[in-house]
Each structure stands twice: as structure tokens, then as C-alpha cells.
């Protein structure tokens, strides 16, 4: 069985595929709680995908790439420091946001994911409606 840190690395690597939907379908459960502190909270695969497809999301975001700056595990909890890069279809960057996250892993699934970031940094994304 993969270690929790391996699950989080694999999940993070899959995030750019189909706007995160591939990663969510593969690594979430029907009970996974995903919290973007101060922005959103979802439970399960369907709510997480609905959040990714929300109408007010910038249409110009084609993919998100997680640049892992640091990663550490404490049992089934994995702590990450990331630079989340939001890019257009042509690969140009819309925004890059520094994020601290914690993932809780059971078996080969993520059962909880919480991210903490400067909410004002995300404003650039919502302002980009192109």
C-alpha cells in the first residue's frame, strides 16, 4: 500500500488533468471534505467537481499546477507548502498563489484536504473573467 505522502504526491501530479477532475475522482471518496479556508467547503466527489465548475470561476483558467515547495508526513497527515500556478490554455500564467495545505489519507484515498492562503491573492483569479 502506498504511503500517505506518495498518495498526496500522485494526487498533486494529477491536478492539471481535466481541471482537477481526474485527481478528485481517483483520490476522493464520497465523504472527503475539502476546505479552501475562507472560500469554500465541499463534501464528496460531486460537490468538489461542482466547485471546480462553478459559474463565477474565471473562464480563462485552463489548468492548475502544484509546485511542491515542501512536503512532510506525520502518520496519515501530509503537510504541504505549495505554489499553485493557474494557467491559460496557451500556458501563460494568470496567477501563482502560495498555499499551505494538510491532507488526511486513509488507505489510498484522501479523506480530508484543507488549504490555507492569502484570500486576497485569489482575487486576481476572480477578477480575470477573460
Give a concise summary:
It is built from 4 helices and 6 strands. With 130 residues, it is an alpha+beta fold.
> In total, how many beta strands?
6
**Alpha-carbon distance between the termini?**
43 Å
- What would the average pLDDT be, to the nearest integer? 91
The largest β sheet comes out as: 6 strands, mixed
Tally of helical runs: 4
- Strand residue percentage: 35-45%
- List the helices and strands in order: HHEEHEEEEH
Question: Which word captures the global form?
Answer: globular
How much helix is in the residues? 10-25%
Major β-sheet strand ordering: 2-1-6-5-4-3
Structural class: alpha+beta
Q: Unreliable stretches, pLDDT < 50, 5 or more residues?
A: none
Give the radius of gyration: 14 Å
Describe this structure in words.
This protein is of the alpha+beta class. Helices cover 25% and strands 42% of the residues. Strands 2-1-6-5-4-3 form a six-stranded mixed sheet, with helices on one face. The mean pLDDT is 91.
Highlighted features:
single chain, 130 residues, alpha+beta, six-stranded mixed sheet, 4 helices, 25% helix
Give the helix/strand layout:
Blueprint: H1 4-14, H2 21-27, E1 33-36, E2 40-43, H3 44-52, E3 63-74, E4 77-87, E5 93-106, E6 109-117, H4 123-127
Helix pairs in contact: 1-2
Amino acid at each position: 500500500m502506498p504511503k500517505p505522502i506518495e498518495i498526496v504526491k500522485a494526487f498533486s501530479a494529477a491536478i492539471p488533468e481535466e481541471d482537477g477532475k481526474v485527481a478528485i475522482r481517483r483520490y476522493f471518496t464520497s465523504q472527503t471534505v475539502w476546505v479552501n479556508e475562507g472560500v469554500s467547503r465541499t463534501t464528496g466527489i460531486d460537490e468538489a467537481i461542482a466547485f471546480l465548475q462553478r459559474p463565477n470561476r474565471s473562464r480563462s483558467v485552463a489548468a492548475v499546477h502544484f509546485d511542491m515547495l515542501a512536503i512532510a508526513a506525520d502518520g496519515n497527515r501530509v503537510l504541504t507548502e505549495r505554489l499553485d500556478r493557474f494557467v491559460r490554455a496557451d500556458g501563460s500564467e494568470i496567477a501563482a498563489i502560495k498555499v499551505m495545505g494538510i491532507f488526511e489519507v486513509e488507505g489510498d484515498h484522501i479523506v480530508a484536504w484543507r488549504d490555507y492562503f492569502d484570500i486576497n491573492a485569489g482575487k486576481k483569479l476572480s477578477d480575470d473573467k477573460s
